[in-house]
Design goal:
Helix content: 40-55%
CATH class: Alpha Beta
Number of domains: 1
Shape: globular
Distance between the termini: 41 Å
Number of strands: 4
CATH superfamily: Transposase IS200-like
Radius of gyration: 17 Å
Number of helices: 8
Strand content: 5-15%
CATH architecture: 2-Layer Sandwich
Order of helices and strands: HEEHEHHHHHHE
CATH topology: Alpha-Beta Plaits
Largest sheet: 2 strands, antiparallel
């Protein structure tokens, strides 16, 4: 089911997500709002930040959407899916995965042609109140212009089939994307 029918819907969702992230302590590093789903790359800063933010935005957006389109019931099909990204390599791959989603979906031929992703902020330094810069993105260059140029080049290379498969598998299975090693004694990450 489509969860966005027009510009107003995307704008309302963006505002609600920004508020929910701020209130719950979740940093958003990348996003893509597609017609029938969303992608986010986030860092939760507290134990339940992600859960609280997604609950809040889901509840508020459903109220808005149902009132606007005279409907009832849930807007989102089931609970959101998550995966832990624990290597720099896969963090960059996930950032590309999110921002290139409209290109892979065949909606646009270049990522800059789609308005509802974080690509413009990363590739062209456009202001975006949703985003908190991640240390790995900041490491791409000494200044904003260098980072933007680097990001455009990286995105121009696309993603390997191996990375696409790994990301999709991790998200659908709820697994870890990278090389997280668990301590056998207490199950904590090393």
């Amino acid at each position: 089911m489509d969860i966005f029918h027009g510009e107003a819907d995307y704008q309302v969702f963006s505002t609600l997500l920004c508020d929910a992230a701020t209130r719950s302590g979740m940093e958003i590093h990348a996003y893509a709002f597609m017609r029938n789903h969303i992608h986010l790359l986030v860092t939760p800063r507290r134990k339940r930040s992600l859960e609280k933010a997604m609950h809040l935005v889901g509840f508020q957006y459903a109220r808005y959407f149902n009132a606007r389109y005279q409907r009832t019931g849930p807007v989102f099909e089931g609970r959101y899916r998550t995966t832990v990204v624990d290597t720099d390599r896969y963090w960059y791959a996930c950032l590309r995965y999110v921002e290139l989603n409209p290109v892979r979906a065949g909606i646009v031929s270049t990522p800059d042609a789609y308005a509802w992703t974080s690509y413009a902020a990363h590739a062209f330094n456009e202001a975006d109140v949703l985003l908190t810069p991640h240390r790995l993105f900041l490491a791409l260059g000494a200044c904003a212009a260098e980072r933007a140029a680097c990001w455009r080049q990286v995105c121009g290379e696309g993603l390997s089939n191996e990375d696409l498969s790994a990301i999709r598998y991790a998200v659908h299975s709820g697994g870890v994307l990278g090389t997280l090693i668990l301590d056998d004694e207490n199950g904590e990450a090393q």
